[in-house]
Amino acid sequence: MQYGFYFNQNRCMGCFACIVACKDWHDVPAGPVSWIRIKTIEKGRYPDLSVSFLPQLCVHCASPACAAVCPADAITKRGEDGVVVVDSEACLGSTCGLCLDECPYGAPQFGAEEDAKMQKCDLCIERISIGKKPICVSSCPMYALDAGPLDELWAKYGKCREIEGFEYSENVIPSIVFTPRKNSGNSRIRKIEIAPSVKTATSG
Amino acid sequence: MTRNNTGKEQIIRTICNSHCGGNCEMQVHVKNGRIIRIEPDDREGRPRMCLRGHAYRQRVYAPDRILYPLKRTGPRGAGEFSRISWEEALDTIAFEMKKVKSEYGNAAFLHFCSMCDPHVLHHVGAFHRLLCKFGGYTAPWGFISNEAAAFSAGATYGTYRRYSQVEHDSEEYLKAKYIIMWSWNPVDTEQGTNTPWHLMQAKEKGAKIICVDPRYTDSAAVFADKWIPVRPGTDTAVLVAMANVIINENLHDEGFINSYTSGFEKYKEYVLGSTDGLPKTPEWASAISGVAADEIKEMARLYATEKPAVLATSIAAGRTAFGEQYHRAAAALEAITGNLEFNDWQSRSPKGFRINPHPTPPNQVEQEAPPRWNALPFRGKSVNSSARVNISLFADAILKGKEGGYPADYKFLWLSNTNYLNQLSEVNKTAKAFERLEFMLVTEQFMTASARYADVILPVCTFLERTDIMSPRAASIFGGKNVVGILNKAIEPLGESKSQLQICEALAPKLGITDYGNEPDENRVREIVAQISEEINLPDFETLRKEGIHIIEASPSSDSLKGTHSKPSPKPFSTPSEKIDIYSDVLARMNHPQIPAVPTYIEPWESIHDPLTEKYPLQLITPHIKRRAHSQFDNLPWLRELQEQRLSIHSTDAELRGIRHGDMVRIYNDRGEVRIPADVTERIMPGVVAIPQGAWYTPDKKGIDYGGCANVLTKNATSPGGSFVSSTALVQVEKEDR
């Protein structure tokens, strides 16, 4: 089985609740390490603009490049759920950093301290094991995130594997599906039309 | 923050309410008496915390928390203090209070307690009770956030309820076909628990959403089908012009107007220009506001015809000069189109909810004073008393006193859980006023800019260190249903910190007050639950405390509980006409040129036509930022690293000044100077700059603020209705010389 993430780009408002919830849950101090980050994608010139958001985290690839390149075999992919985990005792530290070079999604995180060990999202395997969702999913006030077995996510949300800001890589096969942003273009010149279905649904 | 892996982990439920307008459930994990993590409530549809709630552990254990009583050892504002015992602190305070009382009388005491995180017990009421038992004090009047809206609601509906047009229940958004979000950015401000989620559901159902704002906010980015930038301070002109289009095109709702409103004809005269010869056309408003006339026409037509439509005019634009008119114009527009919903907002709170755990004798200082000239009857005798000082004018009152026309000379200031210096206008003037005081007492969690001026600081614990009950209210997240909930104490107060109520209890006997009371919080909360239960069916205390937020289902017999969303014949409004007063007799009687009886656009001071623009050509606005609730949370590393305090400036304005993204810039006017990095962006109107409010004032020796406190630059003046004006200020920006 392969676990993965789902992200709905229409719903994410860049509120950062997931980032802080993750730092609190996993006791990650302020600093360069953040197991989940939110990228803001801004486009256009005043007044014709669009802004959208994208979470950046480990997407627990089917063939993780980080694991393949790790000289200390510190990164492994779990058989039971496909979650990619790191053994920080075995990790050679930031002076090595090969995993970060190889990862197309910037998932491996290193602290500022000398020879910091790699850390990253572990899909909250502890929470999953007691039937909970990862903390980022549970904390999202917009229900923009989900996580679970990939086939269940596909059945529920479809198989869209690329959105603005995220490129699918055949080499690593990331375990994430998306709902892309609707109308991500210029929001100002769009003509406002009220959909007939809405009119009927709420008239009277 | 290292975790100890031994010991049993307990999960305590409580409710966060950090003065953001939301109430979110928290599951606090505690081990060996320490909070190790805070988990959201992951039940579907329950209020989910924002980033600030998730960072609360860092607030509790912040290294800069004040944990012991302190006394000042250096000059005011220098921040030099030494630790003292509670005994010494209380004796000092009591001695100074008695001295001021005997030398100047009780009116010489000024006290203000902001919202911070209080609920029912640990609330301004506890201080009010103490000070009234001490013989009275000068209390403030005016809501910092929304006085313009309260003034408008009082004049228009005769009630404080539904003080802003944002106060819609989630159900109203879900039904809407057309939603106008006006100067409203709930992504950053919360403003009603999880409001963005309701808006998203409305959007997914097909509602069209318009965002009117000088900034392309994250709310505009996520929700808006169209963004309409508007020049700060000119919102009223656009709203009035929308009324012009609606009346001219006969799109108004005559039936609704005749049944429920009064004074439409007089407003029509103003809007069409039959009295002053100036029709308030979209072209007229366009020249003022920068909004294209066609956009105004389209918005007006869709708002009047695509019903149900929601006009969500937030309180932000109300914090500009003459903000009362913005709220009045919005209320008028809502009424003349018949878009106003009578979801019993006039009498939402059932009787059992009117809890007062702090019974208080009358404030003697207010007893003889007549009402203020701009008082609205619905506020009551006490708030309307001319003995009070407007919340924006403490500094002015301290500096000028009786000679300046104030009712008293002010000698003793007590600030509780409020960073007044930082959060009210004209910081440098306030600092001068604080230097003049005979004694200043601050009850706080952190060494804020205000606390640095105190003679004595008393340490207050956070809400995770005490028991309370959530102020019962109608919650928009639950469709306007009434809710209540217990805040369970998760850990013991850190250091020697005490709750707000404990501080009052400890001080009372020192002041010779023998009947203040001294009861454990939990007993008091149990009593309150018992009181509410007399009127409303509640689970027992033990069940309630495990539940988080309890939703009170309306019983069919109770008409005071949540009713249906329909348009029944409303109870008469408490206005002179007993209807919605588009024309207000109450306002007419105030006989003030800047408080007209019908909603009217009045050009703000420091507008773009002010000669001052030669020196200071840019309009400053001071919006909220995600990582703070006002000045709260500014010091937490988890939050600071997410958003730098920066000046938003449009690329053309930046280019003119040779400013590049990230450059350190000077933002200044005659009132002061702030230096922070520039955020050169497309997401703000040219001619407008923004500094997020709430950053802690951090002056250097010359008084230049490097913290980025917006109120260094705002003007210490109230709108004629009494509102705090935070987004009407002209400034200049230039690149810092190195």
Structure description:
The complex is a heterodimer of chains A (204) and B (738). Chain A has 204 residues and is of the alpha+beta class. Chain A has a single domain, classed as 2-Layer Sandwich (Alpha-Beta Plaits), CATH 3.30.70. Chain A has a three-stranded mixed beta sheet. By secondary structure, chain B is α/β, with parallel strands linked by helices. Chain B folds into four domains: 52 residues, Single Sheet (N-terminal domain of TfIIb), CATH 2.20.25; 217 residues, Rossmann fold (3-Layer(aba) Sandwich); 220 residues, Dimethylsulfoxide Reductase, domain 2 (3-Layer(aba) Sandwich), CATH 3.40.228.10; 125 residues, Barwin-like endoglucanases (Beta Barrel), CATH 2.40.40. Chain B has 24 helices and 27 strands. A six-stranded mixed beta sheet of chain B has the order 5-4-16-15-14-6, covered by helices on one side. Chain B has a six-stranded mixed β-barrel with strand order 22-26-23-25-24-27. In chain B, strands 10-9-8-12 form a four-stranded parallel beta sheet. Chain B is globular. Chains A and B meet through helix 1, strand 2, strand 3, helix 5 and helix 7 of A and strand 3, helix 8, helix 9 and helix 23 of B.
